[in-house]
Specification:
9 helices, Urease, subunit C, domain 1, Aminopeptidase, Peptidase_M14, eight-stranded mixed β-sheet
Length: 380
């Protein structure tokens, strides 16, 4: 398995019907109708009575459970899963090997109400990834019942992360991040945690040649209310995947390719046999930090301040008439020496103000600024 061949396969199997960040049940239903190989089931229903689907691929002895869009606004891995489904419909050597050795149970959208409204939480405003113990929501119970019935040997918990994350305290954006969750307060390195770490280490090794220093590792502070921590506590190696940001990729179409590769590499490692002695390389992955803003205007004169400042802009993702909009919000006005912008604008000491010549206030929405008599757009 190598990056070049996987990227070539991706171009052949990419699902054209799924694009951008707003992915809902109605979109994936059109794609489900075109698949011929999986067993597709309705596991249950969301708070607002939307179906929660599962797809079963393969009949091998190794059982792997994967789920995506537990948070409704984290859709990149859902797109990548459907690209994987298309590959499983072909006679690729990799897909044949995976499906001969594994049985995959996949939930592409666990939180269809949140997906519809583009929110993290479900219709009852509950974060499903903090409901692993209370099981207060129908979606949480659907996942737990599936876990109990299927009895997986591995779990892939697929998420998306904000653009603020860096791989370490650096100017390297965390394009992907991973975690082998803790299963107790002491964060003991159990055999199942080491297995998850070893898989992540091999994924990281594969992707470093294309996104060098662009993969981060989340802090493994223990929270039994999180699904990953709970399943790890059950003794099942559980991997948290997080799709992050890549340069000029706010639709996360390039990150989608990286997730496609990372999912398949994870499966391939399992098929070939997990060597838990490789777990130590997991700790070579830098821990995530929050070093990025979407835009930073550097060395600006602003708001009658005596000293030059940097202006940080962060995009708020807003669903407007069924389309996702990135709304620029002023996040900080100060010197940001240890922060980085996905886009940086050099003001060179010029006055930066709004179109109406008003002050730039924290929390204000601002699509454009005026600088040196030039109108500058802040949108992606």
């Amino acid at each position: 398995m190598n990056l070049k061949s996987l990227s070539q396969i991706f171009l052949q199997v990419k699902t054209p019907e799924l694009y951008g960040r707003y992915i809902t049940n109605s979109q994936i239903e059109n794609c489900l109708d075109k698949l011929s190989n999986p067993i597709i089931s309705t596991l249950g229903y969301s708070v607002e009575n939307r179906p929660i689907y599962s797809l079963k691929y393969g009949n091998g002895p190794i059982k792997i459970l994967l789920w995506s869009q537990m948070h409704g606004n984290e859709s990149t891995s859902t797109k990548a899963l459907f690209d994987c489904f298309n590959m499983f419909e072909t006679e690729q050597d990799l897909s044949n090997r995976i499906l001969e050795r594994c049985t995959l149970m996949v939930v592409p959208i666990l939180n269809p109400d949140g997906a519809e409204c583009y929110t993290r939480v479900n219709a009852n405003e509950i974060d499903l990834n903090r409901d692993a113990q209370n099981l207060s929501q129908p979606e949480s119970n659907v996942l737990r019942q599936l876990y109990n019935d299927f009895r997986p040997e591995y779990c892939f918990n697929l998420h998306g992360q904000r653009t603020i994350f860096s791989a370490g305290e650096t100017d390297n954006v965390a394009t992907l991040s991973f975690l082998s969750p803790a299963q107790n307060q002491e964060r003991t390195l159990t055999a199942n945690r080491k297995a998850a770490m070893s898989i992540i280490a091999e994924i990281n090794q594969l992707l470093q040649s294309e996104i060098p220093n662009g993969i981060g590792r989340y802090d493994d502070g223990f929270n039994i209310n999180c699904v990953g921590d709970t399943f790890q506590d059950f003794g099942v190696p559980t991997l948290l995947y997080e799709a992050g940001h890549y340069k000029n990729d706010y639709d996360r179409e390039e990150v989608r390719r990286f997730m496609f590769i990372a999912i398949l590499k994870g499966l391939d490692v399992i098929v070939n046999g997990v060597d838990i002695d490789k777990y130590e390389a997991y700790f070579d992955i830098p821990e995530n930090a929050k070093c990025f803003y979407d835009v930073i205007i550097r060395n600006a004169k602003c708001n009658d301040l005596d000293d030059l400042v940097d202006i940080a802009i962060q995009y708020k993702e807003v669903l407007i008439e069924g389309k996702l909009q990135f709304v620029p919000i002023v996040e900080e006005v100060s010197k940001l020496n240890k922060k980085y912008g996905h886009k940086e604008i050099e003001a060179n000491g010029f006055l930066v103000e709004t179109i109406g010549n008003s002050e730039l206030t924290i929390g204000s929405e601002i699509d454009f600024v005026m600088m040196n008599n030039e109108r500058i757009s802040l949108k992606p």
